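---------- Forwarded message ----------

FYI, see the Protease Do-like 9 isoform X1 record below. Original note from H. follows.
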Amino acid sequence: MGDQKRRRGRKPKNPVADTMDFQMNNTETTSSAAIDDVFSVGNVEIAEDDSPVASTGRGRPCKVAKHADTSAVASPVRNISRVVENNGECVLAVSVAGDIARHSSVVEPPPRWENVVKVVPSMDAVVKVFCVHTEPNFSLPWQRKRQYSSSSSGFIIGGRRVLTNAHSVEHHTQVKLKKRGSDTKYLATVLAIGTECDIAMLTVNDDEFWEGVSPVEFGSLPALQDAVTVVGYPIGGDTISVTSGVVSRMEILSYVHGSTELLGLQIDAAINSGNSGGPAFNDKGNCVGIAFQSLKHEDVENIGYVIPTPVIMHFIIDYERNKEYTGFPTLGVEWQKMENPDLRMAMGMTSDQKGVRIRRVEPTAPESQVLKPSDILLSFDGIDIANDGTVPFRHGERIGFSYLVSQKYTGENSVVKVLRNSEIFEFNIKLATYKRLIPAHIKGRPPSYYIIAGFVFTTVSVPYLRSEYGKDYEYDAPVKLLDKHLHAMAQSEDEQLVVVSQVLVADINIGYEDIVNTQVLAFNGKPVKNLKSLASMVENCDDEFLKFELEYQQLVVLQTKIAKAATLDIVTTHCIPSAMSEDLK
């Protein structure tokens, strides 16, 4: 399962892990964000009054009530069940008593149902999340797409806060919460969105929302085969749903929404669309995770994934420390396993030394000042790293050493021990978040664009590739862009990959109409570092010609004065409010 591709979207030929949104509907149109292959299997639904249901064979269901005779002193004996009519409602009563004769001669009144049913507090803390999304239109970056709605799950924690999944409230314009058994939807405010860990934190200003609800308590990391119960509001009904299973696996997982790898739990409880953001409880009623994605494939059944408590607590503590989400730090290196004995010998390692070889160091990472390619990373914060890149986790378990890095916070220091030219060095490094040349998210900001003579320049991100080429962009996007997406490293913090997104046809750009999604390398002989620098160079250009050097050795040449004069007419024709986005002005 570890080598399967996990990403959001429709079901391809290979197994895919999907983040579990509920149905995303619009009354007039079907959103492209709707999740395919949605079904509901094995959910046990609990009625709003938390009453189990039994059949009497008399044409309607009956509630099962159990009450005890506290006056009995002998060993309790289960009495014969009887059916009692209570205000037209069928109640199947089971009494426990020590004196069978006394109960056979005296018919007690049926118990009041609200007195004998104990509501589970943890389930009352589970809420339904309603969200209206308005996504940016990356292909036409000056406008947004048609809005659509979705519903998912969440749960109340201490401090008047609610946790759900980040993808449940992504690009939100309005978020509302509804408690179990309530007919009122309360407006919510999004406090923080953690894209990497797929967690979002909400709050509600209305005091009425918090009345009579006990927050969920967090438990420790479960062990394999520990029982878990997933609670939420999945597809198949409007009431709360409960599915149960056990912890099947625990390892570093690929988080589909965040395009990152963090600790995750695999469970065999059914997780369907709408379960996103719902809590997973252990047998003590404590929350041990948040449901967030599942594996969809014809060869697998009931494989769901849960965000474990270490990741959840990291998100919460990060927000409490910084009043915002700052992310999970990374070491900023690419590494190679050292399992081959000849490779270890060539690197100068002794028989008792273990570690991994550093292949590349991120130029923007603080580690680039001290770590070098071909260094052997021996330990992190005093914990030895094995030749396969794992460290001891729990009894009988090992896990990738990136888990140790992810437990740190942005800006914290760590001690790494490396082997370089047969000498051991120790470095105290400051951890930071990962700067990608092609970012996985734009974090709620509208996309940047710049238009000159009908040429639409913009920056490449994963959402942009998905917008242009669909959910299978990893197969359909241009090879040059995919190569940079998978392997290129940003050389500076402000570096961006700038492309000609499209050409809005006009007389001035005749012959250039077919240029689509091609990278801009240089302008008038100067390298293009980011979109803002390109816009600045073009706007301040006094040369006779505008010369754009593109990928594949393409060259675009325009007369400066004519190009700038034609821009206003072109944006007016296409009803574009401005020739550049607000962040470039």
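H. also flagged this: The chain has three domains: 123-322, 329-433, 449-574.
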